[in-house]
């Protein structure tokens, strides 16, 4: 029997308003994993009402106590790590070691945010008036909506929810329709920690039927969205009409620069991991390899030899290096880009084909692919979101930086060089929210801010201590204990004379 899910509100599963369901399937085998209610605006109304009730209780709990609940949630995830990692692999398609890594990231982030309950710092400042004290405090925004993607079905919800929950917000989550099972189990596991009913809510369904009503609901005070640029613009516009904060994490076209003095063996290892880990389905995936002309031939030969040896197959098999892409539509889009690369006179260095026969017949498999191309081609500038690496030759460092910056995105970047001066120049000159030195473009750590510039997002940051800024408001507080009316912003000289007179000065 395939398990069925409704909507998660008031701390438990409830039947959805409608009777329509959709299925989630294993992209490696086509196996149906679960059936989910197709939520609608009425379900969103119920979830938001639940979130409003939960918020009234949760916001009054002191932040350190909220941290204790988050810590229990992290421990619940630890207990369920293998189950959840296996589900990530079966529903999303990443290899099992990456599934474990994703769940560990969620565990780590909830532990980190638990500590932020004792570090929700404000500021104290001197007043321009005597016997007066000034400070700022952070307060939760209210019930918040979250729309998350399929490629990190556990860790991205954990980033958003961990920061929102420690801030005192309640949450309504709309997971991707390709991976709702992971989100459902994630919510079930963290709910073991004892959050008050209504603090955590989940409504599965499409963007049109669940996402839009969530964004436009009058009781939702902020939206956090991760996904594509086109959808992100729609989300941002809808939120702007309501004058609520909208945080966007969008696309990437992340470059690795390999200079003439680079450790090529290290660079090859990093590019393999960055370009073909998660089948290239990361917003931080290495999608462009920008190589100094003096080492271009050598590194492409080394890399192609390794790419041809990557084992593609069912990601539940721990000997496999790369699993399928998420669905048939994604596979068709990626293969379309490979065809575009060929038509743009790109040279396929490795891969380039669809895998259809034998063990691949029921899944969405593509060969890991390298294509030599020119800067400005579509495959070198548009986000492909698959295991396709554009390789570009440059004559020097200045051209490498120009090429790296010459796209609409700015999430992650990397440079391989042994020149410390050049490395520090790259940190300043590369237009991205994240820069790695002698490491691939993937591998962000949860205690540092995550986000990008240009069309990668709206400039805010997830993860790190700055994550709580998305879900809190700063309040300025003025405490006057002089027991008389004091007027700020008056003439400085008059105020100075008055103060000196009161203190006995000349």
List the helices and strands and how they pair.
Blueprint lengths: L2 E3 L1 E3 L2 E3 L6 E5 L6 E6 L3 H18 L4 H17 L1 H12 L3 H21 L7 E3 L5 E9 L3 E4 L7 H13 L3 E4 L5 H12 L8 E3 L4 H9 L6 E5 L2 H13 L3 E5 L4 E5 L5 H13 L9 E7 L3 H14 L18 H16 L3 E4 L3 E2 L9 E2 L2 E4 L5 H4 L6 E7 L2 H9 L3 E2 L1 E5 L3 H10 L4 E4 L15 E2 L17 E9 L11 H11 L4
Parallel strand pairs: 1-5, 8-9, 8-11, 9-10, 11-12, 13-14, 13-21, 14-19, 18-19, 21-22
Antiparallel strand pairs: 2-3, 4-5, 6-7, 7-24, 15-18, 16-17, 20-23
Helix pairs in contact: 1-7, 2-4, 2-5, 2-6, 3-4, 3-6, 4-5, 9-10
Based on CA atoms alone, the radius of gyration comes out at: 25 Å
Going across the major beta sheet, what is the strand order? 15-18-19-14-13-21-22
- The amount of beta strand, in percent, is 15-25%
Question: What is the CATH superfamily of the largest domain?
Answer: Aldehyde Dehydrogenase, Chain A, domain 1
- Number of alpha- plus pi-helical segments: 15
By CATH reckoning, the class of the largest domain would read Alpha Beta
CATH-derived topology of the largest domain = Aldehyde Dehydrogenase, Chain A, domain 1
Oligomer state equals single chain
Mean pLDDT: 96
Task: Give unreliable regions as ranges.
Answer: none
- Approximate helicity band: 25-40%
Separation of termini?
A: 90 Å
């Amino acid at each position: 029997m395939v398990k069925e899910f409704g909507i998660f509100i008031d701390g438990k599963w409830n039947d959805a308003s409608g009777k329509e369901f959709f299925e989630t399937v294993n992209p490696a085998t086509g196996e149906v994993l679960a059936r989910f209610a197709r939520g609608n605006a009425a379900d969103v109304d119920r979830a938001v009402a639940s979130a409003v009730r939960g918020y009234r209780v949760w916001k009054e709990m002191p932040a350190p106590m909220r941290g204790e609940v988050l810590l229990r949630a992290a421990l619940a995830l630890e207990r369920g790590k293998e189950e959840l990692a296996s589900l990530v692999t079966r529903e999303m398609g990443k290899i099992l070691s990456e599934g474990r890594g994703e769940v560990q990231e969620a565990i780590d982030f909830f532990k980190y945010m638990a500590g932020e309950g004792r570090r929700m710092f404000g500021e104290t400042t001197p007043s321009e008036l005597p016997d007066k004290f000034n400070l700022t405090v952070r307060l939760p925004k209210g019930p918040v909506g979250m729309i998350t993607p399929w490629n990190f079905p556990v860790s991205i919800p954990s980033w958003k929810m961990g920061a929102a929950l420690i801030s005192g917000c309640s949450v309504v989550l709309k997971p991707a329709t390709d991976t709702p099972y992971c989100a459902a189990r994630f919510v079930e596991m963290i709910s073991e920690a004892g959050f008050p009913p209504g603090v955590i809510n989940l409504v599965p369904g499409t963007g049109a039927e669940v996402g839009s009503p969530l964004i436009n609901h009058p009781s939702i005070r902020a939206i956090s969205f991760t996904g594509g640029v086109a959808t992100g613009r729609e989300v941002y516009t809808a939120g702007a009409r309501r004058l609520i904060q909208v945080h966007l994490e969008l696309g990437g076209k992340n470059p690795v620069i390999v200079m003439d003095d680079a450790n090529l063996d290290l660079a090859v290892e990093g590019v393999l991991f960055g370009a073909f880990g998660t089948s290239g389905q990361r917003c931080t995936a290495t999608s462009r390899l920008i190589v100094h002309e003096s080492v271009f031939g050598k590194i492409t030969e080394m890399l192609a030899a390794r790419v041809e040896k990557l084992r593609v197959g069912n990601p539940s098999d721990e000997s496999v290096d790369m699993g399928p892409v998420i669905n048939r539509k994604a596979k068709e889009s990626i293969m379309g880009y490979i065809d575009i690369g060929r038509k743009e006179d790109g040279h396929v260095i490795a891969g380039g084909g669809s895998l259809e026969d034998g063990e691949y017949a029921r899944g969405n498999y593509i060969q890991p692919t390298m294509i030599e191309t020119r800067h400005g081609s579509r495959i070198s500038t548009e986000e492909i979101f698959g295991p396709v690496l554009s390789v570009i030759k440059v004559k020097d460092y200045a051209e490498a930086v120009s090429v790296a910056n010459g796209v609409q995105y700015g999430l992650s970047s990397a440079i391989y060089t042994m020149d410390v001066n050049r490395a520090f120049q790259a940190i300043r000159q590369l237009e991205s929210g994240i820069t790695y030195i002698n490491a691939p473009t993937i591998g962000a750590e949860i205690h540092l801010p995550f986000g990008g510039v240009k069309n990668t997002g709206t400039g805010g940051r997830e993860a790190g201590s700055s994550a709580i800024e998305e879900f809190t408001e700063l309040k300025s507080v003025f405490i006057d204990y002089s027991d008389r009316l004091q007027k700020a912003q008056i003439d400085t000289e008059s105020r100075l004379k008055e103060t000196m007179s009161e203190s006995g000065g000349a």
